[in-house]
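# nightly structure sweep
# worker-07 picked up a monomer target from the shared queue
# config: single-sequence mode, recycle default, output format = structure tokens
# input follows
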Amino acid sequence: MKSDYHFKFEDLLIYQKAMDFGEIVDVLVKNFPNHELYALSSQFRRAADSIALNIAEGYPGSDAQFVKHINHAIHSANECVSCSSKAKRRKYISFEENENNRKLISELTKMMSSLRKKILERNTKN
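# output follows
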């Protein structure tokens, strides 16, 4: 069911993909051992969620604020690479799951870098 209340940032494809990635990570970490609940599971989930949260937080602000939040989102995406790699090394996820995470993170990072570049180019033209 669709909400009667819509926010403009929800139209951004990068936001939608970041939201999807957060849900993928949430499902993955449910299979991690219990001793990782407040460690790698939590860190991975928070980093994945932080991508969409930073995009949403930065969107209504100035271009400079949005670029700052895009940078934070990229940092969170990079953190997800490390979390996924740790999970694979500890045999919590398969090689294929890690590869899929890396593919999705790569797509997100490229989209965020492109968006950041467009914002910065727009500002140099003014």
